[in-house]
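Thread: "does anyone have the structure for this chain?"

Original post by V.I.:
We have the sequence but no experimental structure in hand. Need at least a predicted one for the grant figures.
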Amino acid sequence: MGFPRFNMNEKLMEGLFSMGFETPTPIQEQAIPVILSGKDLIACAQTGTGKTAAYLLPVLSKLATSPSENIDTLIIAPTRELALQIDQALGGFAYFTSVSSLAVYGGSDGAAFEREKKALSTGANIIIATPGRLLSHLNSGYTKFGHLKHLILDEADRMLDMGFYDDIMRIINYLPAQRQTLLFSATMPPKIRTLAQKILHRPEQINIAISKPAEGILQTAYLVFDKQKNDLILHILQGKNMKSILIFSATKSNVKNLERELRKLGLSVCAIHSDLDQKQREEVLRDFIARKTKILVATDVLSRGIDIDGIDLVINYDVPQDAEDYVHRIGRTARAESTGVAITFINEYDQKRFKAIEDLIEKEIFKSPLPEQLGSGPAYEPWKNTFDPRRRQRPHGKGKR
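Reply from O.Q.:
Generated one for you, tokens below.
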């Protein structure tokens, strides 16, 4: 029966079907009835499983059935990109309804701040906000959350990793105690359980494929010295008919350097990192999504929460610092039951970290031989403790990406 069995608002269903949604994903199948029932929820599902729609659809159904002039729902997201992504998805689902929304994410001009202030004062139905920007408004005293019915935390584990715990708790102090709270997270470490105990009331729990890459992803890796990485990328891309390629690197300097090198070769490439202002970042993403740009080189700011369909290839230029981040990085490909390729470069310093990834996903990833013209790479010795003197460790979650 698909979505009709949930008995959601007819106007919402019209928008849903116009977007081509027919069969709910497992997280949607389990979460929608819980949210419609009014219960609190803690849900664990990896990227690309459809969890944005899992919480938007039932909330929109309630609002479309019982319209309001007040702020009904607050969605908190860790990054500007995710906030915009949620707002765009919401706009599509709610097209045939009268529900209003606004993304509050910062990094914009004064006019944007005034629009946000007006919406928070007079009441857009759904506010999607990053923690820091929302607190800037809350501290000014004009935000009206007195009629709030729903609080949703998306990518909660990422928010805590980024150091937003105190901000989240301060925001919650401004909200009504009687509300429905929904917490969505890709992983469920102890700190998420602690947060859930503080802000949720007798929640239902859903766990969907925790920390496992989608089956449609072909995963492989190369043992490679850093000086060989750029030549290896050129070899991988040469002659490949791929429309959309995403390359992740651990540092902003690597991202900038790789963009320059690929551009010199005449490739269609752009980079996204923290030195770009919000307008520039949005433009880069728009061009990549529209296939105007073939290759996007990015820091971890894109590893979660950005819903870009049709990625053919994801390359990890560096092994992710955290094993869970590997799942989110390669989760950009093989979305919605499609297929894709994920390639990781492992230097002599990152082998133990890569072994932790294999342990997490319970799978040994094939190590492809380097092309003959590149010479030999490092031996695979993940049991050795090696320290990379070029990596300066930052306090966890505090580094600027």
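V.I.: this helps a lot. Residues 303 and 328 are 5 Å apart (CA to CA).
O.Q.: and Residues 392-401 have pLDDT under 50 and may be disordered.
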